[in-house]
Each structure stands twice: as structure tokens, then as C-alpha cells.
Write a structure and sequence with these properties.
It is a single chain. By secondary structure, this protein is mainly alpha-helical. The protein has 2 domains: 53 residues; 39 residues. The chain contains 5 helices and no strands.
Length: 117
């Protein structure tokens, strides 16, 4: 009986001092939430493309607003995803730059050696 009172008192103290769940838990983040948001974003980007093809401005505007909300929510809940996407874009940029430089060097080599290489 005494233990039960202690538990109730500790619970009341926690509630009184605001020791509740973290803001992240209240926000609704869980394992897989970031990937779920990413799938939703890719799905609605397809919907936006369809709206653009059909030239429906209201549909496009509402889809764009929904995409913006999804992007904001993913940025708020999954900041590591934004860093990952930025790093992937940078790596892709340098891969494309390297390939372009390499093809330019090969073309220059053919030009300056009169087709010997």
C-alpha cells in the first residue's frame, strides 16, 4: 500500500514539474517516419507532374502547397536527411564534372595529336 502511494506521488510530481514526453515524441517521429515522408513526397511529385500535364492550375497549386508542408515536416523531423540529400547532390555534381572533364580531355588529345590517340 505504501509503495502505491509513493508511485502516485512521484507521478504527480512529474506532472507538476512538466516532466512529460519529449517534443520529438509528441511530434510523432518514429522509426521509418523519414522514409514514409520521403515516399509521400515522391508520390505527390508524380501527382504534381500529372496536374502540370493536364494544365490544372488549382490542382497544381494545392499539390505544391501539400509538397511544401511535407518538405517542411521532413526537414523538421529528419534534419539528417537534408544533409544526406545535399551530400548526394554534391557527389553527383562532382561525378558529372569529372566525366565532362574526362571527355573534354579525350577530345583535346585527339585534336592536338591529329587523331593518333
Amino acid at each position: 500500500m505504501r509503495f502505491g502511494r509513493q508511485v502516485v506521488m512521484m507521478g504527480l510530481v512529474c506532472v507538476a514539474f512538466g516532466a512529460g514526453p519529449r517534443a520529438e515524441a509528441q511530434e510523432g517521429r518514429y522509426n521509418g517516419h523519414c522514409s514514409r515522408l520521403t515516399r509521400q513526397i515522391s508520390q505527390f511529385e508524380g501527382v504534381a507532374d500529372r496536374a502540370r500535364e493536364r494544365e490544372d492550375s488549382l490542382w497544381l497549386a494545392s499539390t505544391a502547397a501539400h509538397l511544401e508542408r511535407l518538405h517542411d515536416r521532413r526537414s523538421r523531423l529528419c534534419p539528417e536527411y537534408d544533409r544526406f540529400v545535399e551530400r548526394a547532390r554534391t557527389e553527383q555534381f562532382w561525378r558529372e564534372t569529372y566525366a565532362l572533364t574526362l571527355s573534354g580531355a579525350k577530345a583535346a588529345m585527339r585534336y592536338f595529336t591529329f587523331g593518333m590517340y
